[in-house]
Each structure stands twice: as structure tokens, then as C-alpha cells.
Write a structure and sequence with these properties.
The chain is mainly β. Helix content is 0%, strand content 49%. It is built from no helices and eleven strands. Strands 2, 4, 5, 6, 9, 10 and 11 form a seven-stranded mixed beta sheet that branches. Strands 1-3-8-7 form a four-stranded antiparallel beta sheet, with no helix packed on it. It is globular and about 40 Å long.
Length: 124
């Protein structure tokens, strides 16, 4: 069974940085797979943050463009999210996800495998 495990969450002040990691058991060498990061703030729906396809092409939500960077290390089966210049609105539970033959790159319904999440809190 496909498994995803996030790490790296924590507390940071406005303007600070964090790096999230997600290890996956099966996806690194599957050409059909797109990996992504989502987040869910209290009382809000889950939203797509960034995605990366097998060929390395990336997509970002407008709210994080220029501040967040998604990357992957296929040899280590690890997905990353580098978050810089963080804002209070970035506070959320962050999830990594994997999907096959994804068309809408930041849509939750396109992804079938999910991690348990890691909490990120940004304070002013």
C-alpha cells in the first residue's frame, strides 16, 4: 500500500522559514504520478499549495508564489516544500499527496494517497 509521511512542521514567526519533507514508498519512479502539498486551516477547506510532476514541472497557488518552492529527491523518495517569508495566513495542517494522471494539479479530488499531516504555525 502506498504510504506518505510528512515531517518538518513547527512554529515560526512572520517572515521566517520552514522546510517540510514527505517520504513516499512507491511514487518516485512512477511516470504517471504527480506529488503535491495541500494545507487546511481551522474552519476552512483543504487547498492546494504546490504540485510537482514526474518531469519536474511545478504549479503553485497564487498565495504562495515567490515564497514557497516544491522539489523532490527521487533517489531518496522524498518530496520537499521550502517555505520562506511566511505569513500568519500560512498557518495550517500541511499534507503531502500523490495522484496518478492528474489533470487539475491543485484539486484535492485528483489525489488518492495522503499523509497524516504536519502542523505549521506562524505567529506575529
Amino acid at each position: 500500500q502506498d504510504q506518505l509521511a510528512e515531517s518538518g512542521g513547527g512554529s515560526v514567526q512572520v517572515g521566517g522559514s520552514l522546510k517540510l519533507s514527505c517520504t513516499s514508498s512507491n511514487y518516485a519512479h512512477d511516470r504517471s504520478v504527480t506529488m503535491a502539498w495541500f494545507r487546511q486551516a481551522p474552519g476552512k477547506g483543504r487547498e492546494g499549495v504546490a504540485s510537482i510532476a514526474y518531469d519536474g514541472s511545478t504549479t503553485y497557488a497564487n498565495s504562495v508564489k515567490g515564497r514557497f518552492t516544491i522539489s523532490k529527491d527521487s533517489a531518496e523518495n522524498t518530496l520537499y516544500l521550502h517555505m520562506n517569508n511566511m505569513k500568519v495566513d500560512d498557518t495550517a495542517m500541511y499534507y503531502c499527496a500523490a495522484g496518478r494522471w492528474v489533470a487539475d494539479l491543485l484539486a484535492t479530488l485528483e489525489y488518492s494517497a495522503w499523509g497524516q499531516g504536519t502542523q505549521v504555525t506562524v505567529s506575529s
